[in-house]
Structure formats: structure tokens, C-alpha cells
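Onboarding guide, step 5: your first structure request.
Type a short instruction followed by the sequence, for example:

Predict the 3D structure of this protein.
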Amino acid sequence: MKKIILGLIVLASIASCKKSKDAPVCETSVAGIAGNYKITKAIVSVAGFPDTDVTSTWLDDCQKNGVYQLKADKTVVYTETGTCSGSGTGSWDVVSGKISLSTSGDSYDLASKTISGWDCSTLVVSDDLGGATYKISFSKQ
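The system replies with C-alpha cells like these:
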């Protein structure tokens, strides 16, 4: 009987041991965020009302297709394709959970906006507009 109980304990121990995969560390830093991005969504939230997708209203087709190359040296290259002519260069930085981005082109510039989400592939930036909150989602390319 002792052998059976011991065998069940060993079997239960083996069955309960499983390797856990560590979640990737998504640093909210220049090094952690550097990469190529496109804006994929712009949402406005007002208390008491459903969220409103304003991507089409806030951004023209050129801006929706523009690519932000956020480089590790804190420079940014914004590139529009096709017949669009708003490409430009500039700078970006991340300080204390906030991102700033400015270019000479027709990109969507940011001035010290809160990083409200970052999962290593989607960067969500938000700001309060006096009673309304907007969130801009940048998807890594």
C-alpha cells in the first residue's frame, strides 16, 4: 500500500510540473520601442458614451499609410508612399512613461503623451482633451 501511495505522489508531482514560458519584457524605453510603425486606430472616449473610432476623421489616407521608423538613436524617419508627399525626419524620445515625436513631414506629431499600452507589437498613446480621452494605436510593422 505504501508503494502505491508513494507512486501516486510521484506521479502527481510529475504531472503538476510544467514549464512556464516567461512573458516577453516590453520595456517602455527608446531601446524597447524602437522599430517601424503605422497608425492603425484612433479612438475618442467620453464618459457616459461609447468609444468613437475617429481614425478616418483625424487622419488622411497618406497618414494612415505612413510608416514611422523610430530609431534607437532617437531620430525618426516618417515615410508616406504612392502619390503622398508628406515624408519627413525628426526626433522622438521616451521619458517617464511618456512619448514625444516630432517630424518635418505630415506625420501625426506627439508632445509628451502617455504610453497607456505596450505589448511589444502595439503601442497605445493617450491624452486627455478636457473631458475626452483619445488613444492612438501604432502597430509594429
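Each response can be followed by summary notes, for example: The beta strands are 35-46, 52-53, 67-70, 75-79, 88-95, 98-103, 110-118, 122-128, 132-140.
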